[in-house]
Design brief:
Layout (H helix, E strand, L loop, with lengths): L1 H20 L4 E4 L17 E7 L6 H20 L6 E9 L2 E9 L10 E11 L2 E11 H34 L3 H15 L6 H16 L1 E5 L5 E3 L7 E7 L11 E5 L5 E4 L10 E8 L4 E8 L5 H6 L1 H13 L2 E8 L1 H4 L2 E9 L2 E4 L1 H13 L4 E3 L12 H15 L5 E14 L17 E13 L5 E13 L2 H20 L1
Helix pairs in contact: 3-4, 3-5, 4-5, 5-7
């Protein structure tokens, strides 16, 4: 039984293979015999003839359309048009005879339409589909006029593309990158229209790559943070060309951001200025870290994408090669910005500078993440200056001598010895007699000031008292409490 089944399987396999290898058979044809024009080109003094052959198709209408398109392509190639054309066909029936009017829109060839005629049609139906043939004719006079017109047009285009490329090379040598790109793209577009100008087309592509590969996109400043309060460090993008290391002005830039919901703005527009610089800022983001990428904009190359998508994809690769990546971290603005810390103690209405204690407070700020440096202001400090007057003196001093510093953290401490409880400080409800407990008060104000605008960004005040068996002990206890209260500022 097993042997019988095996024999049947072998027979079935062989019969299937025979069916698969069987050549397609002719079922019928549209006429009893194949027309002579299918194999032998028809000729006349008035018309040029072209035979179109459609790809085998199981749909008769699709096979016919393919044959007509092939015939028109052969006509256009004979005239000189590139075969990158689109066809529209309209059918008219008149006394059972089929007429085809083919309207050809010739891309990039100015206005020219082809009105030709399908003189004859023939098809064969096979077991695997239809093969369609069509005989197309076009007047000799019209064809020759078009061939002459195209020769003249191609020559003019060659002259124009050559001129544009020559200017582009000179501009490139002089570092005029944007103008060089514009000329090169124009030459690319013009030379693409005719196969005869393929050498200029290739030259345009090569020059475009040279120009773009010479670009260097750099970060022109330190940009590290974007802030909880909104905004970020300025992102100053600088573009130059390695051709002569000049700044590239007028280049349209583009950017992407790891946070798609982030709002990134260009302060003065997306084009680089006279110095090759464009400035960006992150207005808001919900992320903790951001990666931004800056490169040349591909919008300038829309025509390239339309004409040659493969080459456009090459340009996209160069776009990624020269792209600059910038990473920013979320931070508190007051902490991230470089600040100068100044401490002024006021005792008995006299301004005093305490460098040692100022250093201790500076260390406290630094431990909380502030970019802070303590500043010696003894040169500008006057003991009798008012708080407002001294504030302006310090800001002007920092603006002149510490140009890297953006903010001023100004701490004023007013010291007051209140005296002894029961003697200098009395309570109506209690008679404490000679308590010998001394009280010392420190009233503190902390202001964070933008040095450029003199605007107060944050202010905080607190008052504390220290007590002891003597004045020095009271002062010491007050100073200890000072650091505890200072923590409230950070929170």
């Amino acid at each position: 039984m097993k042997r019988f089944l095996l024999i049947l399987l072998v027979i079935f396999s062989c019969s299937s293979q025979v069916r698969e290898n069987t050549p397609p058979k002719l079922i019928r044809a549209s006429s009893p015999s194949q027309p002579s024009w299918v194999l032998k080109k028809k000729q006349s003094t008035d018309h040029y003839y072209f035979v179109g052959i459609g790809k085998k198709n199981k749909n008769l209408q699709e096979a016919r359309k393919s044959a007509i398109e092939d015939g028109v392509s052969r006509l256009l190639e004979f005239i000189g048009f590139r075969a990158t054309t689109k066809f529209q066909s309209k059918k008219e029936y008149n006394d059972d005879s089929l007429k085809e009017e083919i309207i050809q829109t010739i891309e990039g060839k100015a206005s020219a339409s082809v009105i030709t005629e399908v003189e004859d049609l023939y098809y064969e139906e096979y077991t695997d589909g239809y093969v369609f043939y069509t005989l197309i004719k076009s007047p000799v006079k019209w064809v020759e006029q078009e061939r002459k017109r195209l020769r003249e047009k191609v020559n003019k285009e060659k002259e124009e593309a050559t001129r544009l490329l020559g200017e582009a090379k000179t501009l490139f040598e002089n570092g005029e990158i944007v103008k060089a790109l514009d000329n090169t793209i124009s030459a690319f577009e013009i030379s693409e229209r005719a196969e005869e100008n393929s050498d200029l087309y290739a030259e345009s592509k090569d020059l475009m790559i040279q120009i773009l590969s010479s670009l260097r996109i750099e970060l022109n400043n330190k940009a590290n943070f974007f802030y909880k309060e909104g905004g970020s460090d300025e992102i100053e993008i600088y573009v130059k060309t390695t051709k002569n290391f000049k700044a590239v002005k007028g280049l349209l830039l583009d950017f992407d951001c790891s946070d798609k919901e982030a709002l990134v703005v260009a302060k003065k527009g997306l084009q680089t200025d006279e110095k090759g610089v464009a400035i960006f800022n992150v207005e808001k983001s919900g992320a903790n870290n951001l990666e931004l990428g800056f490169s040349f904009s591909l919008k300038r190359f829309d025509i390239v994408k339309k004409l040659d998508e493969d080459f456009y994809n090459d340009l996209k690769k160069y776009n990624n090669i020269v792209k600059l990546k910038v990473n920013l971290k979320l931070n508190d603005r007051l902490k991230a910005v470089s600040s100068a810390l100044v401490l002024i103690d006021v005792e008995n209405e006299q301004n005093k500078y305490s460098p040692k204690f100022q250093e201790e407070i500076g260390a406290k700020f630094a431990s909380r993440g502030f970019q802070v440096q303590t500043v010696d202001i003894s040169k500008v400090l006057k003991s009798k200056d008012s708080e407002e007057s001294l504030r302006d003196k310090i800001i002007n001093f920092l603006a002149k001598e510490y140009k890297n510093v953006k903010n001023l953290i100004l701490i004023y401490r007013n010291h007051n010895y209140l005296g002894e409880i029961g003697k200098d400080i009395k309570f109506n409800e209690y008679d404490l007699g000679d308590s010998q407990i001394k009280i010392y008060e420190i009233q503190t104000s902390i202001s964070v000031i933008d040095i450029a605008t003199k605007e107060t960004l944050k202010g905080y005040k607190f008052s504390l008292k220290g007590q002891g068996l003597n004045k020095n002990q009271a002062i010491e206890n007050a100073e200890k409490r000072f650091f505890e209260k200072l923590d409230e500022f950070f929170n």
